[in-house]
Design a protein that fits this description.
heterodimer, A: alpha+beta, two-stranded antiparallel ribbon, 5 helices, about 55% helix, about 10% strand, globular, B: alpha/beta, 4-stranded mixed sheet, 3 helices, VOC_core (chain B)
Chain lengths: ~100, ~130
């Protein structure tokens, strides 16, 4: 129940959804790259601390995993937790187009 | 007033000279003894009379914690301009250079971030 609450909370914020979009486009990003993408591509002027907090929420929900490689820390997307959504509310098979 | 020198804090001047010349393609400009270190600068062959890059020893106790904190978050403190980031990334990867950020289109600019092996991340940029 808590895990589910964490998941929906994480998805409930537009900036966090954009972070997931960007990690979906390029997996394994440093905090710097994520900040750069949000600023330059999306015009979001959040502080590095704010982005860091967003990432912590995503990590708490299991949607982002961090990996230390050498001296740098990379953030990876994990869409696994989203499975619980379609398991709870299955998606109907698409009708074949006429 | 004009900018004539900017610095990168390197953990080993000889190693830094090799990386900045052999891999990145700069040329050595000044190399004179300065105490137990060297006054060691490189320039771009495209602009030999332009801004010099000083390969400055990072021996000050505050330098390495500062550098480590930046590198941990992937932050490049220094930027170099290149004609084509995509091509330069390919060239440097061929020389074994490690990147923390692939060539990324950010709208007005394409950037990538490499590890200079001397404790710094360096950004490459091509303005569109």
């Amino acid at each position: 129940m808590t895990a589910e609450a964490d998941l929906f909370k994480a998805l409930g914020d537009a900036t966090r959804r954009i972070i997931l979009d960007e990690l979906s486009e390029q997996d394994g990003q440093t905090l710097f790259e994520i900040c750069g993408r949000l600023t330059m591509k999306h015009g979001l002027a959040s502080s590095r601390q704010a982005i860091s907090q967003h990432l912590a929420v995503l990590e708490q929900a299991g949607l982002v995993h961090t990996r230390r490689q050498g001296r740098y820390k990379f953030h990876h997307l994990d869409t696994g937790p989203l499975r619980s959504i379609v398991e709870r509310w299955p998606i109907d098979r698409e009708e074949p187009s006429p | 007033m004009r900018i004539n020198i900017t610095s990168v804090l390197v953990d080993d001047q000889a190693k830094a000279l090799a990386f900045y010349t052999d891999k990145l393609g700069f040329t050595k400009k000044t190399d004179v003894p300065a105490g137990d270190a060297r006054w060691l600068t490189v320039v771009s062959p495209a602009d030999p009379d332009g801004v010099e890059l000083l390969l400055e020893p990072d021996g000050h106790p505050a330098a390495r914690p500062f550098k480590n904190a930046l590198v941990g978050d992937g932050i490049p403190y220094t930027q170099f301009a290149v004609d084509d980031v995509y091509a330069e990334v390919e060239r440097l990867k061929g020389l074994g250079v490690e990147f923390t950020q692939e060539a990324t289109d950010l709208g007005p600019v394409v950037t990538a971030v490499l590890d200079d092996t001397c404790g710094n991340l360096i950004q490459l940029a091509t303005m569109k």
